[in-house]
Design a protein that fits this description.
Structural class: alpha+beta
Strand content: 5-15%
Number of domains: 2
Order of helices and strands: HEHHHHEEHEEEHEHHH
Strand order of the largest sheet: 6-5-4-3-7
Shape: globular
CATH architecture of the largest domain: Alpha-Beta Complex
Number of strands: 7
Number of helices: 10
Distance between the termini: 12 Å
Helix content: 25-40%
């Protein structure tokens, strides 16, 4: 199940299963780059054209080898087109699907062979790859704001949402490719844990509305880890995504200690410290923030208390994991359902989180049957 809600910038977030693991074709780079979006309710971010300058905090390696190819992908033009589309005054519900679909076709066509070019072009990608990654991130933030505006006026269509989901995914894959090049294609070391929600660009990207990353109670964490099982989980819905797990942040108002509530296949629903959450080995993480901080903190508090109360009345047993993925019956919970249920508790009824639900893709029924998912 994937969430998309105006309060969260209308990003597809959450996935059907919640193993807490993940896999990526571009694992060496994704292990290092952490894309963070502290988004909702933010004013439009100025997605400046792809200027040829890398952030001073990052020093790229130099690539020295023989000529590899003679054709260079015009990546800067593709990124600039993405920026132009999301800033176009004529961007509206009627044109959204076509505009985003056209941009998606260009960005989604990127493959490693596109970057196997001559020395000069290769070094250009290395020198400016960090800025390209920042530009792609800024464009996604701007797009989420535009989608939020359409939703508030009742002009956001299912086709537009689907096209936006595809474009979000394609831009992140392109970031992964660029990150591989910027990092010099280091050999993947599974034993080396990636820093999560720490560092500087291009590893940590923060909405320009915020000067730094500082978690708030009620924030929603999306993540993906290192196991290949989550590659399937991230694509179990009717639209492919980049994430496979959700959790909600709770911050104790007295001690200021940070905790998370989440549902895992292996153990069900649990409360644990943020430090323990980080030990799972995330290779990609994103933070989304509800526009109502009081409601968000109440959601985090109530789901935390519900999980603790269940454990107390059931001899320490956890709330069972919902393998059937029935989001309308909260006695058992899967990870996306847990976050949605938290906001329903805080609202005292249906919260509208998510605004747009994805359906489980029934094409591979054998896989779904094996993992116990019921297709509704």
């Amino acid at each position: 199940m994937k969430f998309s809600n105006q309060a969260y910038g209308l990003l597809v977030f959450g996935l059907a299963m919640c193993a807490g693991f993940g896999g990526s074709l571009w694992s060496a780079q994704v292990q290092t780059v952490q894309v963070v979006a502290l988004m909702p309710g933010a004013p439009p971010v100025s997605a400046n054209k792809a200027v040829m300058k890398a952030p001073e905090v990052f020093t790229a390696p130099k690539f020295e080898t023989s000529e590899l190819a003679s054709v260079e992908r015009d990546l800067e033009a593709d990124i600039n087109e993405f920026m132009d589309v999301v800033e176009d005054p004529s961007f509206d519900g009627a044109r959204c699907e076509a505009l985003l679909g056209s941009t998606y076709q260009k960005l989604s066509g990127a493959t490693p062979s596109d970057f196997a070019v001559g020395i000069a072009a290769r070094n250009n990608y290395i020198s400016h790859g960090a800025q390209y990654i920042q530009d792609l991130f800024n464009s996604r933030v701007t797009l989420r704001h535009r989608l939020g505006t359409l939703a508030s006026t009742g002009k956001l269509t299912p086709g537009c949402i689907s096209a936006a989901r595809d474009l979000f995914r394609a831009s992140r894959v392109l970031e992964d490719l660029l990150g591989e090049i910027v990092l010099g294609h280091p050999k993947f070391n599974e034993a080396k844990k990636a820093p999560v929600l720490r560092g500087n660009a291009p590893w940590l990207l923060v909405n320009e509305r915020y000067s730094k990353l500082a978690l708030r109670s009620g924030d929603v964490l999306l993540s993906r880890g290192t196991a290949f099982s989550s590659a399937a989980i991230a694509r179990i819905g009717d639209g492919d995504t980049n994430f496979s797990h959700l959790a909600i942040v709770y911050i104790d108002p007295l001690t200021h200690k940070i905790y998370v509530s989440e549902a895992h296949i292996e153990v069900g629903s649990i409360n644990r410290s943020f430090g323990e959450y980080l030990l799972d080995g995330k290779v990609r993480a994103a933070v989304f923030r509800h526009k109502d901080p009081i409601l968000a903190h109440k959601a985090a508090t109530m789901i935390r208390e519900e999980i603790a109360a269940y454990q107390k009345s059931n001899s320490g047993e956890n709330v069972p994991y919902d393998f059937s993925m029935n989001a309308d019956e909260p006695s058992n919970l899967f990870c996306s359902e847990l976050v949605s249920h938290a906001f329903d508790l805080a609202k005292g009824g249906k919260s509208g989180v998510p605004m747009f639900r994805s359906k489980v893709n029934p094409k591979n029924r054998d896989f779904l049957n094996r993992i116990g998912v019921k297709v509704h």
